[in-house]
Design a protein that fits this description.
Structural class: mainly alpha
Number of strands: 2
Order of helices and strands: HHHHEEH
Strand order of the largest sheet: 1-2
Shape: globular
Helix content: 40-55%
Strand content: 5-15%
Radius of gyration: 17 Å
Protein name: Reverse transcriptase (RNA-dependent DNA polymerase)
Family: Belongs to the bacterial reverse transcriptase family.
Number of helices: 5
Length: 116
């Protein structure tokens, strides 16, 4: 956990009534790199067809682009790819597959919220 996340966790623990105002500002490139390190690299591609291997091939550019979009508040979530996996009873279960970029942002937000 980084110093910023430690500070947020400390504030949340010591001031239980505190309401955090600008957590969005914490979603910077270093947080996105940390999130990338925790992703499952074997996961399926989303609707854009980009695999984790393709994303990793251009990792600095992709992370920089995500950080810029988040900073300028222009980041928009991609559509979710819907696939159906078979169940034991013969029916199918719907499964949503986000794009790799969305997974990185989601993981970053998850780490931020877990520190609180």
């Amino acid at each position: 956990m980084t110093t910023a996340l430690n500070a947020i966790a400390f504030k949340a623990h010591t001031h239980t009534k505190h309401r955090f105002q600008n957590l969005y500002g914490q979603l910077k490139a270093d947080a996105l790199y940390r999130a990338w390190a925790h992703l499952n690299k074997q996961s399926a591609a989303g609707i854009d067809g980009v695999t984790t291997q393709q994303f990793e091939h251009r990792l600095p550019e992709n992370i920089h682009m995500l950080a810029q979009q988040l900073k300028s508040r222009q980041y928009r979530v991609d559509d979710i790819k819907r696939v159906y996996i078979p169940k034991a009873n013969g029916k199918e279960r719907p499964l949503g597959l986000p794009s790799v970029a969305d997974k990185v942002v989601q993981q970053s937000v998850s780490e931020l919220l877990q520190s609180i």
